[in-house]
Amino acid sequence: MDSLRVLVTGGAGFIGSHLVRELVFRGYEVRVLDNLSRGSLQNIRDILSSVELVVRDIRDYEAVEKAVSGMDAVVHLAALTDVEESLREPNLYAEVNVVGTLNLARASRKVDSFIYASSSAVYGDPVKIPIPEDHPLRPKSPYGASKASGELYLMSYSKIYGFRPVILRIFNVYGPRQSTSYSGVIIEFIRRALRGEPLVIYGTGEQTRDFIYVSDVVQAIVCALKSRTSGVFNIGSGEATRILDLANEVLRILGLDNVGLVHEETRPEDIVHSVADITRARRELGFKPSIPLHVGLRTTIERLRAALST
Q: Active site includes 161?
């Protein structure tokens, strides 16, 4: 199994660079497809000699078809992922996340294993906590809608062509190499705290999220590669964290007593509660998240502080 030839789209990005490194370590043959618009060669520079890099865009079907050729498995991570940006650029999110995913589906119909990185954003405001995979899809942002659309295209190809994708609905992932321009709450809190600025909380701070460290997401993808199953799986820690508690933990780790919290109006795209039911992933994929939030936060803060100081 470890001799599999794997295409990783978005392999120079946040999750992708961690995954590529793990696959190389495990002895997989890895091809990376990335246009480097958001990813960076710096993320994989130390392992470039061990991978095949294709710098092309997933919106280019011919490039995608060529990149998929000869692969045993495809892990589709390439995407635009910023909810706030998706509100400003909905057409761009449709082009990259929907058309790009359709191109991968078309080109990968005969590939043995196809793994799609979807998002908890497809659920919108849940009616049940923790959220099971059969929860209705009710996205509140163009980003969430684009990921849900990608899922629907994959499911339609599954019915028409016998294509058997694994869809991983990833919850709030964080960790080293996450872009400092990303609007996610953990990166935003750390960035503001390091500048000595108050942490901005939208609403009361009683909102909850399911934060999962990037290495646990990588392990979930590896589990999916090794399994012979298909279907939809939530990938999270399975634990709820209040945004207020997250803010206080960031300040505690940094030892900042002089940085306060500022509350602003809730934004319409914000989700109140989001926690994954990971029962299915545990049972069918053997997925076991192992990094507690306080441990992952400390590592993320240390790496980001070092990156910003250079």
A: no
Four-point Cα dihedral 173, 176, 180, 182, nearest 10: -10
DSSP letters for 54-118: E---TT-HHHHHHHHTT-SEEEE------HHHHHH-HHHHIIIIIIHHHHHHHHTTT-SEEEEEE
For the entire predicted model, the pTM comes to 0.96
Its CATH class, for the domain covering 5-174+213-236, is: alpha beta
Residue 170 β-bridge partners: 119, 235
- Which of 28, 93, 143, 153 is an active site residue? 143
**Residues 54-106: pLDDT tens digits?**
999 999 999 999 999 999 999 999 999 999 999 999 999 999 999 999 999 99
Supply 193's token pair. 């705290």
- What are the domain boundaries of the chain? 5-174+213-236
